[in-house]
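User: Fold this; tokens only.

Assistant: Input:
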Amino acid sequence: MKLLIAAALALGLAGCATTGVEEYRAATPVLQLEHYFNGRLEAWGMFQGRSGEVKKRFHVVIDARWNDGIGVLDEHFRWSDGTESQRIWTLIRQPDGSYRGKADDVIGEAIGKLAGNALHWRYVMAVPVDGKTYHVDFDDWMFLMDDKVMLNRSTMSKWGFHLGEVTLSFIKR
């Protein structure tokens, strides 16, 4: 019985393990944020609730530029319900090769690690829902597919409970 409990515990803990960005070090094409997020980009995405239903779709136009190691991503969203919003990210490359990012609706800083074709961001965002604002954890993965296309998948959680996912496809113009 003890062996059965130990095996179940080990399997449960293994299921909690996350893939590290270093796993993608050899993946190509190599993602260079200063190159990809420079100029005009467009993205199409959707937010899915915890059971997988699509709650909202959106289109975003991004004007991105870098100056002296500081990147600014000016994002203009048009949502499927007709509303519009804007987010302006400021990104700074760190001496260790990671990135820090800030935006008005990000609580603290986003921390990004880059390896090969992958970028892994973690941050907390203030998300408005039905007149209230919730601080939601984002686990955000971006994968460069070629010089024009990047795919992005974010999982959202609160207190460890899965809330939903955001999926995006970026096109560099």
